[in-house]
Model the fold of this input.
Amino acid sequence: AAMSRKPGTFLVDSLTRSAKHFNKSEVECLMKLFDKLVAKSSSHFAGVGFDRIVFRDTLHSAFGMTDDVVLDRVFSTFDRDNNGCITVVEWVEGLAVLLRGTLEDKMKYCFKVYDLNGDGYISREEMFQMLKNSLLIQPADEEPDEGVKDLVEIALKKMDHDHDGKLSFADFEKAVREESLLLEAFGPCLPDIK
Done:
């Protein structure tokens, strides 16, 4: 019996070190929740992890995150090896940033969510896509896309410090440090404080 307990203990210790913002009992709780989600997931990942659908349902019910595009991007930032499956390590380390991350952690995370093609920049098109999905467009608005384009230009004016027409991480970081509300400038991808 001692042998079968060992890997679990090792994993808890390892995750407590790598997910710096959680203590040992919190890591154990998150691992139990992970096991429940894996059991609920009837996916083909054979107990190793759970898929996008379970992930989205969980973030939706736990944090009230509803935007499909944002949820897909959050899934991509958690799923670091890009295999469509969230492992226990990806789960605990991802939640460490989401729930307890420093401003630095959260800036990197948000930037990654908004950088849709992963090229290290948030382009006009990426801003447009994210904003288009996160804004409530009224049916009365004749040209909703025009309003979104105007917002993109305002965001660029405020955040594009080197004036190259796109946001690098340095631009994003400078803007967020000057005004912390800009952390989620292109859509809600962090849980509510509550």
User: Anything to note?
Assistant: The longest strand covers residues 49-50. The beta strands are 49-50, 86-87, 121-122, 167-168. Residues 1-7 have pLDDT under 50 and may be disordered.
